[in-house]
Amino acid sequence: MQIRYNVSTLQLDDIPIDIGYASERVELKNSAQESFRIGGQNGATQLIVTTPFVDEELLTQLREIDALLSLNALGGVTKGLVVATDKHHDPRLEEWQFGIDEGEAFGDYYGVRLSPGELGGEFAKALFVISKDGALFYHEILDNLNGAFSLEKALVKIAAAQTCYTGKGCH
Known about the structure:
By secondary structure, this protein is α/β, with parallel strands linked by helices. It has one domain: Glutaredoxin (3-Layer(aba) Sandwich), CATH 3.40.30.10. Helices cover 21% and strands 26% of the residues. The protein has three helices and nine strands, in the order βββββαββαββα. The strands form three sheets. The chain has a five-stranded mixed sheet, with helices on one face. Strands 1-2 form a two-stranded antiparallel ribbon. A two-stranded antiparallel ribbon has the order 3-4. The longest helix has 16 residues.
């Protein structure tokens, strides 16, 4: 997959995880170097955003996501902002876990690591929705790192992910 950033063209290191596949539960570190896990089945709908940089435009979109979830009464969603390295600052957003992929498992499993070159080793700008049963329900990997997520579409997918799992086996 080709990804644009200003005048550069970047590539992903690997093929991203596809919709319908089981997501992997991986261990991340927060800014205080405490471990926590994200992904996999945990009984809650998960929203995970990856990014090569934490800037004001991204933070505005994350706040917009919070507002849309609240307005549409979509509670019970765990939210994580994941970066590749500890050179990024924790924006300390309420209700968002900030995770650093210190062991590189997230980038490898989810397929969002950028190839060497400008921003090499960083993550693509991506949004993942994982259903309560741990399956990847939706993803949006932006082909332009300066672009914005399709929040209306993501909101529809989050609502669907919350209602699709019955907890009674195959559905």
